[in-house]
Amino acid sequence: MAMTEDATAEDTKQMRPAKRDPEGVRRDILTVAMEEFSQNGLSGARIDEIAARTRTSKRMIYYYFGDKEGLYQRVLEEAYRKVRGGESDLELSGLDPVAALDKLCRFTFDHHRRNPAFIRMVMIENIHHGRHMQLSDTIRGLNRPAIEELQSVLKRGQAQGLFRPGIDALELHWQISALSFFNVSNAASFSLIFGDVLFTPEGQEQLSRHVADMVLRYVLRQPDRHDPG
């Protein structure tokens, strides 16, 4: 029996691939590209692999991001956008200064350990001497508020007599980042030399807590030794 025109049209419609949301396609490309770049570096990453895993084409990737280095820079920007967005969600201005600094330290440590691809991307960019960061106004714009927010927490703590004076927000940010970064960047070598006790869930929770404690001990105002109280 011959097919009706309506049936033929319906079958053709079902066979036609569904149109993909362009923004969803870009998000998928960035997600997969983050894995590819963080695992293999800029030179070792393969656009063919990213295209295959996202069910798109090299031509489409280049349409969205220009070229391989353009895609790498966007991935780097998105990595920083995620961590700074997470900091913004902490709403530190609504907390007392001690709780705010403790929460920021814990967030930074926990974000880094749960996102090792971010740490690897930063390490790779340092191998390239920060070339792509220099080209990105977005990255500079994303990171500037992080120092301003920390400065605000410090000023509130100092105004309340909780934090000692003379603490530089940029330096404190460096210290928090260094403690959190090393935990991921050197995990393989450290655990091979000394064992993996610090990299168990319990060990990581303890390190996260102790990093916050160390920072607070550094920042908190010490009582006057001559004060009998």
UniProtKB/TrEMBL annotation:
Q: Which residues bind DNA?
A: 46-65
Which key words tag this protein in UniProt? DNA-binding
Domain HTH tetR-type spans what residues? 23-83
InterPro entries, A to Z: Homeodomain-like_sf, HTH-type_TetR-like_transc_reg, HTH_TetR, NicS_C, Tet_transcr_reg_TetR-rel_C_sf
Enumerate composition-biased segments (Basic and acidic residues): 10-24
State the residue spans of region: Disordered.
1-24
Coiled-coil parts of chain: none
Specify whether Ribosomal protein is a keyword of the entry.
Answer: no
PROSITE patterns reported in the protein's UniProt record = HTH_TETR_2 (PS50977)
Q: Does the keyword DNA-binding apply?
A: yes
PANTHER family linked to this entry = HTH-TYPE TRANSCRIPTIONAL REPRESSOR SCO4008, TRANSCRIPTIONAL REPRESSOR
What is the name attached to this protein's record? AcrR family transcriptional regulator
Question: What organism does the record attribute this protein to?
Answer: Rhizobium paknamense
